[in-house]
Design goal:
Blueprint (H helix, E strand, L loop, with lengths): L6 H7 L26 E9 L2 E10 L4 E2 L1
Antiparallel strand pairs: 1-2, 2-3
């Protein structure tokens, strides 16, 4: 855990992200998939105030759900 009050942690807390979050949705196809979209891989983007904070992936097959 990083401490914002510790000068040694300040650089790690404020470092630039390794990817461009502004372009993460480029090429994304938005559609209403309902409650059960069927088999396949599904990506979920979680945002706070428009900033990407997390991403999740679900893989649905005939026998398992992998998240």
């Amino acid at each position: 855990m990083y401490d914002p009050e510790n000068p040694e942690d300040h650089e790690r807390i404020n470092r630039v992200a390794p990817i461009n979050f502004a372009s993460v949705d480029e090429g994304r196809e938005f559609k209403d998939e309902g409650v059960y979209p069927g088999k396949g891989s599904f990506h979920y983007y979680h945002r706070i105030d428009g900033k990407l904070v997390a991403m999740g992936v679900n893989d649905i097959t005939n026998s398992i759900l992998n998240a």
